[in-house]
Every structure is written in structure tokens, then in C-alpha cells.
Amino acid sequence: MMNRRTLLGSGLAASAALLARAKQVAAQAHTGHGTAQGAARSFAAPVGTGTLTKGRAVAGESYTPVVMPNGRTLPFEQKNGWKIFHLVAEPVTHEIAPGLTIEAWGYNGGTPGPLIECVEGDKVRIYVTNKLPEPTTVHWHGMLVPAGMDGVAGLTQKAIPVGETYKYELTMTEAGTFMYHPHFDEMVQIALGMVGMIVVHPRRPEARRVRDYALMAHEWLIPIGAKRPDPLAMSDFNVLTFNHKAFPGTEPLVAEQGDLVRIRIGNLGPMDHHPIHLHGYHFDVTATDAGPIPKSARWPENTVLVPVGGVRVIELRADNLGDWALHCHMTHHVMNQMGHDVPNLIGANTRGLDARVGRIVPGYMTMGSTGMGDMHEMDLPDNSISMLGGQGPFGLIDMGGMFTILKVRKQLSGDKDPGWYEHPAGTVAGKASADELARDGIKV
Ligand SMILES: [Cu+2]
């Protein structure tokens, strides 16, 4: 249950009242079962699934497979000089982070769609079966394709009717990072999760060891307690994701000292551009969804703005060991649900408010008068995630949403999440001693 003492004196009143109501409803629905509905969930540290460093090696191909953290790669067959893929558009159930599961739309049993990976020059045939309750198409975003393969309903093809399978034939004329999404009822289908990435590898193999990652940024409005994202949202998104996971649900990226790390960041979210920021490194933006940026035109960056409908590829050399935050720098995009649309009571005197409001709304709890860093301690209604993130080695990581971690180690053993970084002695910020303050003339 909530720790009321640590939360006293603050006041996200509307949200707290909503929580109290949600708790009442849940309690009524479960009377007699003895379950503590709405009890605060534990915040597990993010743990990888063991697929972090290796993609799928493909017979006859020499590229390093791209890893889509929390994601999948679409299998294919080779027949008569074609690579044959099959995408199935369908409703799916998807976990955003432990505690929050949604009814979304996606491809092949999940969302986002699986990564389509192939090689420059490939002839690719992609069958698309429509198991949605309405027509759809697939548009190959950024790719140079014949007009009739461009997937725009009404303009270049008939929308794929419910239950039918259409065929797209594409020649991968250039290497690069592209995306796919429907071009029928775009607002609804994209908002419900129908997005995916495409990587076309150069025919010439890379000269060095590469850790190659794909991250798709997305944003959702998921009303507290609801399972269906609201596709009508324009500005009030409350769940921000990488590969449709909100921290602490995001798998970390890993690299070994000396690796070239390439991160392909796509954005097919409905409305927002995302300034994606990486700690511990300066990186180059090396490509967009229109191909590589000439070396002479690159400049170093800490933050790359990934526009809606765009891809930015960043590269860095993994030479700074540690656990490094990789996140959107819009502060509302590193929060989860519950942190939006609440009154600002920072600095307000809310003493006695709990007792008074509690007479009308049982279980009422005010929060946030000393800031909002303690919001993770709120009780949560069913099917929701805390406004803040997960447990780290030094306590709460108070960011959620579009946040993940790049873990760089001297050596990695196997393909698993290596755990938290072990800092060399004397390299972690800590409390200053009286001697140190005196030595340096700091008066506090
Ligand atoms: Cu953002």
C-alpha cells in the first residue's frame, strides 16, 4: 500500500481523487477475494531477454543483423531469386511495461511490426494479409519504388479489403533505413501501433565490428485504466515509447569497448518530433531515411531531432564504459501515465487537505507539494503505469517513457544484459565530507 507519510503535504489532487475512485471501483469488484487491488507494484529493474547482441544470421549473407530491442525480425524464404516475406496486419495485445497492457493493432502477432531486413539489390516480394476489421495498405516509407507499389489507398492501389492478401514487389535499389505503415485510415491505424522499420544493408560487408540497433519512437494516449489507445489524441499523449515499450519495459542496448554502435531511430508517432539525447558520448548523424550524409556534411551532436515521418541514424565508437541514458529530452516524454493534467501544487500548503477531502472521497491522498519525484509511490489503478520509471543501482530512476540505456563494457559475456555498471572506486558522485568542504573553502 501507499506510504502516506512520504507523500503528505502535496497535492496532485485531481489525479489522487481519480486514483481513489479507481481503487473504490476495484475494491468493490473484488470484495471478498482478499486481493489488494491498486496496491503499489514493485518496480523491477529492466532485464534483457537474451537477444540483445545477436540478430538472426542469414545463410549466404555477410551483414551484421540489426537488433531491434524488445522487437523481432521478419523471417523470409528465398525462392527463384526473390526474398519472400509475409506481413499479417491484425489486432494484437501488447504490454507497454509491466502493469500496462493494451489492445493495439500491429503485424504478425505484435506491435511494432517486425523489422524487415534485406540487402541492396534484393528483389523482395511482400505478401500482406489483412486481418483487421477494416481495409489497410502498406506504404514503404522513404523507399524508391514503382508508383503502383507505393501503398497509398485510392491514389496508387485499392485498399486491401478485410480478409484479403495483396502482393508488393520491390527491388531494394539502395541501402538504408526505411519504415512501413498503412496509408488507409492513417490516423487510427498508426495511432494503434501499425508501424515498422526496414533496413537494407549495403552489399559490401562492413569493415569493423558493429552493434546495429533499430528504435522506433511512438506516442500514445491511453486513458488511465483503459486498454485501447485513443487514436483521436492530438497533443495530450501520456505514454511515450521506444519500440512500443516505456521504461522500465525497454531492453538496454549493449556494446563492447571499441565497437561501432549504430542506432537507427525512426519516428512514425502521430504528432511529436523527438530530440533524442545520449549521455556519455558525442555521436555523428550519419544517415536519414534518404540515405547516408556525406562525411563532409556531418557534425558532432549530443541530441538528434527525429521528426515525425523521419529516420535519423547515429553512430559512435564505444569507448566510454558505463550505463548511459538514451532518452527523449522533452521532459514530458520521459514520464509515464499519471503525470499529466494534474494541478500544480508545488510549494502549496496542503496540510489537512487529506482529512477534509477524504470525507468526500475515501482514500484521497494529496501529492507533489515538494516536487513530483515521489509520484512512483502512488497506488495505481488497474492497468496503468506509474508516472515515473524503474529501479536502478542507486535507487529510483525517475524517468519513464522514451528512455533506455546504452551499456558499454570492456567485455561482454554472451548476449545477455550485463547488469549494472560497476564503477571504479572513487568515480561516483557522493556526499562531500566536512574535511573536503573545509579544504576547498565551501561554506554551507
Ligand atoms: Cu519526445
Q: If you had to describe this structure to a student in words, what would you say it looks like?
A:
By secondary structure, the chain is mainly beta. It has a domain at 77-331: Immunoglobulin-like. The chain is built from five helices and 23 strands. The protein has helices at 4-7, 13-29, 186-191, 353-358, 434-439, and strands at 77-79, 82-97, 100-107, 116-119, 123-130, 139-141, 165-171, 176-181, 196-201, 210-220, 239-242, 253-256, 260-267, 274-278, 283-288, 291-292, 300-301, 303-306, 310-317, 322-328, 390-392, 395-397, 403-409. The strands form five sheets. Strands 10, 11, 13, 15, 16, 17 and 19 form a seven-stranded mixed beta sheet that branches. Strands 1, 2, 3, 5 and 7 form a five-stranded mixed beta sheet that branches. The chain has a five-stranded mixed beta sheet with strand order 12-23-20-14-18, with no helix packed on it. Strand 21 and strand 22 (395-397) form a beta hairpin. The longest helix is centred in the N-terminal third of the chain and has 17 residues, at 13-29. The two termini are 37 Å apart. 44% of the residues are buried. The model is unreliable at 1-53 (pLDDT under 50). It binds copper (II) ion (CU). Copper (II) ion binds next to loops.
